[in-house]
Amino acid sequence: MGGCTTEGDRTAQPKQAQPQETSKCGETVVTDALPEWARTGFSGDGAGIPHVFGKSGDILGVIFGSPLKAPPAEDRSNKILWVTRVSATTAGDLTIHAKLDGTDETAERKVTGGPGPSIIDLPQAGCWRLTLEWWGHTDTMDLTYSS
What we know:
Helices cover 0% and strands 33% of the residues. The protein is mostly beta strands.
């Protein structure tokens, strides 16, 4: 399986380091301490729990179903807790537009009520590029589903 890469204007100066654009899909999963804004409901700092930050840093997915599987594993689900550091300015759902890297395959998922607990099953294993939309905000991230 190839890694996710982004083609684009390489002359633009990024506002901050954005390793997701040049690293292989899945290398964005970290297990260090959760940021303080994402610790509600966790004991301690959440270190050791796999999570992925959105590119802009306004949302993260805490992956309780690690590793994510396609098709879903029989003994556990693909549970992701979506946590955002931006306040709700409007009501609405979290919409996830997913595209399997290197293909035309897409999927759309919805988390009713916005960021929160979810089960996100995707059609097949591989590197999925996600565009997340909630409460007037948009962010992106890569997630890997294994077989």
